[in-house]
Amino acid sequence: MKKSDLLYEGKAKKVFKTNEEGYLIVSYKDDATAFNGVKKGSIRNKGAINNKMSNFLMKILAKSDIETHYVEELNDRETVVKECEIIPLEVIVRNVAAGSLSKRLGLAEGVRLSMPVIEYCYKDDELGDPMVNRYHIQAMNIATIEELELIEYLAFKINDNLQQVFNRIDIELIDFKIEFGKLKNGNVILADEISPDTCRFWDKHTRMKLDKDRFRRDLGQVEEAYEEVYGRLLKYQEELA
Ligand code: TMP
Ligand code: ASP
What's the 176 CA to ligand 1 centre distance in angstroms? Predict the structure, then answer.
């Protein structure tokens, strides 16, 4: 498959058209932003790590009948994906209080929630991705109730699968953000990425943060954290093979 015109450039990825209908090529950058682009920087090797980690995790999810956009890894940074219409929602799943939830509800970071929580944010940079609920989403025709029921079913299933994987490599999955897209045939599939940019990973024993919070909060050892999670996943991958 050949890369053609640049279709879209986001904060962490570029998306290219291809010579084949229905397929796009995603190219992961080392650029990092936080607080809706206010904080800017770069994390060495992040593009390659996020590309490979996301692909590996999506392949695992596919084994549990979760349809994803993943098609083929082309090289360190580039992957062929199915073209889909992104549903403009950040679907956040939380197992442990952290980040904006801790701030909003006054819960100490690190307190386990008695059940996983789903939140939605409307993807709109100008508005700063405001939080919305099921009613806003239906009233604004972003998704139907049937699509939301499916999204929530898939989000919990993805949470179960990812928790199992990360538990095996001594990482606590605190929370994560996923995005879904719609294929031309109406199927809702998992799109975007699953990486330390979009998840909170804490070491199970020391509870050291091993994700983008190190960049957001200037905690140092940012590259090392991405390498650490990726290294543990690689070992797990070898054990599976
Ligand atoms: P939050 O606690 O800041 O709302 O973040 C919840 C989860 O979503 C966390 O795992 C980080 C991820 N996230 C993104 O992937 N993109 C974003 O723009 C934000 C704000 C959070
Ligand atoms: N991706 C978001 C941004 O650039 C922020 C984040 O991940 O915290 O602003």
Answer: 7
Q: What is the mean pLDDT of residues 94-108?
A: 98
Instruction: Specify the pairing of strand 89-96 against strand 112-122.
Output: antiparallel
Query: What residue spans define the domains of the chain?
Result: 3-82, 85-240
Cα–ligand 1 centroid distance for 198 (angstroms): 6
Q: Provide the CA 69 distance to its chain's centre, in angstroms.
A: 13
Fold of 3-82: Phosphorylase Kinase; domain 1 (3.30.200)
Q: Is the CB of 99 within 6 Å of ligand 1?
A: yes
Task: Specify the pTM.
Answer: 0.98
Pocket lining: 177 vs ligand 1, CB cutoff 6 Å: yes
Residue 241 has pLDDT above 90, yes or no: no
**Ligand 1 nearest atom to the CA of residue 129, by list position:** 18
Residue with tokens 């993943």: 70
Residue 33 CA to residue 41 CA, distance in Å, equals: 6
The secondary element (H helix, E strand) that includes residue 134 is helix 134-139
